[in-house]
Amino acid sequence: MNNKDFLIGNITDGIDKRIVSELCQKYMENLEGCNGCDYEKYCLSNKCRYLNWKLTGNMSKAAGVVCGFENIKMSVT
Ligand code: SF4
Fold it and tell me: Distance from the CA of 25 to the center of ligand 1, in angstroms?
């Protein structure tokens, strides 16, 4: 809300399906540097692209801090 990067419409004009489609496509892009990682299936950085956007400014870029956390979490389980 109140972020023009993710604005898909308004109650007056409705939803812009082109923007929704572009955002969905961006959300599905593979993360840079995560290809083949053992934790890919469970990793928060891979599951939540909005988290990446918030932390790195890029939805398709893994957040280093989350990557580190996932590695610690998996090493103790
Ligand atoms: S742990 Fe790191 S390399 Fe593996 S999927 Fe997550 S962000 Fe990518």
Answer: 20
**Count of domains in the chain?**
1
Q: How far apart are CA 1 and CA 30, in angstroms?
A: 25
Give the domain extent around 41. 4-75
At residue 38, what is the residue type? D
- pTM value is 0.78
**Pocket, ligand 1, Cβ cutoff 6 A:** 31, 33-34, 37, 39-40, 43, 45-46, 62, 66-67, 70-71
Contact 68, 39 (CB under 8 A): no
**Per-residue pLDDT tens digits of the chain, which is 77 residues long:** 678 889 999 999 999 999 999 999 988 888 888 988 999 888 988 888 889 999 999 988 999 999 999 999 988 87
